[in-house]
Amino acid sequence: MQLETMKYFPHTPEDISQMLEVIGVKSLDDLYAEVPEELKLHRELNIPAGKSEIEVRRIIGELAAQNKPLVPFAGAGAYDHYTPSVVPYIASRSEFSTSYTPYQAEISQGTLQYIFEYQTMMADLTGMDLSNASMYDGSTATAEAMMMCVAAAKKRNRVLISATVNPAVRAVVRTYAKFHGVDLVEVPAAGGTTDRSEMSRLLAEDNVAGVIVAQPNYYGIVEDFSGLADECHAHKALLAINSVASRLAVLRTPGEWGADIACGDAQSLGLPLSCGGPYIGYLCVKNALVRKMPGRLVGQTVDADGKRAFVLTMQAREQHIRREKATSNICTAQGIMCLYVAIYLSLMGPQGLREVNEHSYAAAHLLHKLLLESGRFEEAFAGAPFFNEFTLRYKGAEGVDALRERLAQAGFLAGVKAEGLDGCLILAATEQRTEQEIVEFAKIACS
Amino acid sequence: MANVIEGLYYSESHEYVKVDGEFGYVGITDFAQEQLGNVVYVDMPEEGDEVEAGSEFGAVESVKAASDLISPVSGEVVEINTALEDEPELVNKDAFANWIIKVKLSDASELDNLMSAADYRAFSSK
Amino acid sequence: MNRTVYSPLIFELSKAGRKGYSLPQNPCPDYQTSQLPTELLRQNAPTRLPEADELTVARHYTNMSGNNFGVDTGFYPLGSCTMKYNPKINEEMAALPGFTGIHPAQDAPYMQGALKLYDEVQRTLAEVAGLSRFTLNPFAGAHGELTGLMVIRTYHEKRGDLQRTKIIVPDSAHGTNPASAAVCGLQIVQVKSTADGTVDVEDLKPLLGPDIAGMMMTNPNTLGIFERQIPEIARLVHECGGLMYYDGANLNPMLGVCRPGDMGFDVMHINLHKTFSTPHGGGGPGSGPVGVRAGLEDYLPNPQVHFNAETQRYELRCNGEALGHVSAFLGNFGIIVRAYAYLLTLGKEGIPMAGKLSVLNANYIKECLKDYYCLPIDGLCKHEFVFDGLLPQYGGSHTDASHITTLEVAKRLLDYGFHAPTIYFPLLFHESMMIEPTETESKETLDAFIDVMKKIAKEALHHPEMLRQAPHSTPVRRLDDVKAVKDAKFSF
């Protein structure tokens, strides 16, 4: 290979010979002299030859073109909210993106400062005392919340999770529970919300470390958690509420419900849908749980001149110090996605975030009305309060699969099929859906 | 040079026991606090918990290190040093005066497995 | 970087009544959230969300970026982190609307391009790793480790061998290895290193038994030393019924030369943000694909991407044998697109060359500095190596309290415009300083770094106070870590 053709490798052949001479070996291959010959590959990798930038652009461009972005009337954990152009533009600055975890605080104040802002905003939004520097996504943040409950309880390992938590989140939590040795018990749904009497019965056994519920829940219903926190605490269990982050501008917060942990996905705060990732999980807690918190935490302090500065703190919880005794194996925060959220919330402010939610609420309720009026749909849970997502049963003879395919042909993503509810769809709308799209969608759906 | 006090019992994991009748006050040694540096948090068990000789009962944290506390004796925790909750740095100021837990000893013969001050002095200067 | 520091927080720039957004007309303002039952509504309005116009926000974060060091601003020899150049074409490809506009609930026929890309990446990684199949669902290296260990536990469980609850980890391992094992419900058994920094096979033998699920290793190890005994170690672990796990953090130097599968490993993770050039992003998002040898593919997490040869279409499948789900969707898809752009660009010639040049650069720095810094293990290193502080003649020492420490050298490097190496890891030495230059740095950059490291050694001898107070020219000076914990303040 001609080295000079590789734009990411700066060495000239002369550089290489000079360096090899300093090292005292004759060739690049001699740098592997100690590797047993029988372990070496001794052939080319069976992959294509390197490509020019023009070719790379063409190949990946063609793959992107083979996807068909449908106009989403779906949520189920990923919401099509608008990303203001400032967000990706500024967040793509390479001073941010090409840096590592901010271990050297003196030259990482940019990263530390935006994480501190993110933590402030998320603690405020969730109504909790503090936020960590973020998690991978909402499902793993919820799994971490489960492990925190067990770690805090010391001698209990049972955690209850409501069947109204998104099945995709529950599947991840179940996987973690199985391997971590947590006795995860599912509390059934009754009429689309958590069965509180069953929850009470299980709590009364006094062996529960934590309880996980969702807001709005999988079906889009806004659940009433009145009295739940007190009941959990009376039985020495912690309460974790998984919420769609954006909704907390309007809905009663986990803090206001008395929860000990707020967790979930913050993708709704301006992150693109991106085939499911990268998103960002959030995890916020009451002060008492700070030392059980997984992941990075940024704190405020001063430098040698007494100037305000920010630093990774309480690191003694973490894997690089505590190894197997760490609160979690998490090493990273979701970095650039934290910055996305911080910039998004800075632009939107309390008023903008409220308007986004009012608009999404109105769009969803308009769609709900149009679909019901047609007589082709009926409410899966009559009269249940919902926000911007709701569950309907499709009465058409063709069935939901044919309906979704018909709408997909017309360019629409017709929600997700409700798991465990035959013939039901969970539909959602955001501020990005126009009246025209809503009317058109309803027209095709009901034709 | 770290301080070692006569009359106490010492473990290889740098805890001490100061025996007072049927009770033992357990803390970390002056040597241990020097090694750790600024102590910022002491994770303590609850009163009424049982501790077992050789097993972990909490942890001491400095800014960039954390060390498990291994109980040198078995018994019930009858008191924890609540002063350390707000002022963990007391451990740095005087590790022997600021014990961490008070244990009702269930087996005094366990003390025979621990080191004397002289032995510990030799052990910790290795 | 200069000493003029940008320090306000966005909250301090906020002014009631300003806004930085615009939204279209609400299609149906008759519907309002106030129609929800009052007890379901937020009781107290948020108080910490800023109110700011667009320029204020844009300028705030742009100025903040000036306080940051990145690969694009300077040399980043951070050991074990593989801070190579992050190509810009990768970013542009990941931002194509054909990817960013896809809702994860879209059915497979409407995201064939994305699924094909996923499958191309998994197949390329399998060839590079010498394994059979990869999942790209794990979100990060540590998440990949956890997933890989779940594969190992599932393998034993499916064989009905339920007593394998222990995992062997070398004392030189990354801290994530034991932490991931603990999250996975495994007990950690530590195996010692020999004087040359490699696994002590004699210490390993008595640990092997019917309770061993497997062994985690990285090769080269965290000292940058190739574990030559690997075939013997793999044989011993396999003989006792365990599986071999490869921590891919150190894969870069082995690319195209010697593959984990050929070394005898059964399961591994790769950090796309290390080896395959996707940006670290100040901590994330990363991606930690997990690969397995033939026979273990079914245990990989759901959903799995498969090509149906009959229909010639890509499908998403949930496999009943799988360990479960570790992510809601297909992982950090945007990161996978970036890695694909890199794999295409380098191709079969470029990938092995990346590995070789990374080894060249590391050995070059090591040879040029070993008369100044203490090299505990001599000989060829791979992509990185470890110094144990300054040599005694330059003020280094393990016993004298007044010696110049690795921390002080690291902080002084910041003054000269270089990022510090990884310090105080691995734990085998008191003054570890782990240096990994990567292949994308030029000889001129390496020479400049070497000159500065020599200069610092001389400063240690003649101006030790200069080092003890360092850094002097960074946006902020050394921070009060104790205050950050004791007067903990996590929000404005």
Count of alpha/pi helices of chain A: 14
The major β-sheet of chain B equals:
6 strands, antiparallel
User: What structural class do the secondary elements of chain B suggest?
Assistant: alpha+beta
Tally of domains of chain A? 3
Summary of the model, kept short:
The complex is a heterotrimer of chains A (447), B (126) and C (492). Chain B has 126 residues and is of the alpha+beta class. Chain B is built from four helices and nine strands, in the order E-E-E-H-E-E-E-E-E-H-H-E-H.
Explain what this protein looks like in three dimensions.
The complex is a heterotrimer of chains A (447), B (126) and C (492). Chain A is of the alpha/beta class and 447 residues long. Chain A folds into 3 domains: 3-65, no CATH class; 71-80 and 350-445, Aspartate Aminotransferase, domain 1, CATH 3.90.1150; 86-342, Aspartate Aminotransferase, domain 2, CATH 3.40.640.10. Chain A has helices at residues 13-23, 53-65, 86-91, 94-97, 109-126, 138-153, 167-180, 196-203, 228-234, 254-257, 319-322, 336-373, 400-409, 435-445, and strands spanning 71-72, 130-131, 158-162, 183-187, 189-190, 193-194, 208-215, 238-243, 261-265, 281-285, 298-302, 308-312, 377-379, 389-394, 412-413, 416-417, 424-428. In chain A, helix 7 (167-180) links the parallel strand 3 (158-162) and strand 4 (183-187). Chain A is globular, with a radius of gyration of 26 Å. Chain B has helices at 30-36, 83-86, 90-93, 117-124; strands at 9-10, 15-20, 23-28, 39-43, 50-51, 56-62, 66-70, 75-80, 101-105. In chain B, a hairpin with a 3-residue loop joins strand 6 and strand 7. Chain B is 18% helix and 35% strand. In chain B, the strands form 2 sheets. Chain B has a 6-stranded antiparallel β-sheet with strand order 1-2-3-9-8-5. Chain B contains 4 helices and 9 strands, in the order E-E-E-H-E-E-E-E-E-H-H-E-H. In chain C, strands 1-7-6-5-4-2-3 form a 7-stranded mixed β-sheet, with helices on both faces. Chain C is α/β, with parallel strands linked by helices and 492 residues long. Chain C has helices at 54-65, 88-94, 97-100, 112-129, 141-158, 176-183, 201-204, 230-239, 260-263, 333-369, 406-415, 443-462, 464-468, 481-486; strands at 133-135, 166-170, 187-191, 212-217, 243-247, 267-269, 290-292, 304-308, 313-317, 385-388, 422-423, 432-435. In chain C, a hairpin with a 4-residue loop joins strand 8 and strand 9. Chain C is 33% helix and 10% strand. Chains in contact: A-B, A-C, B-C.
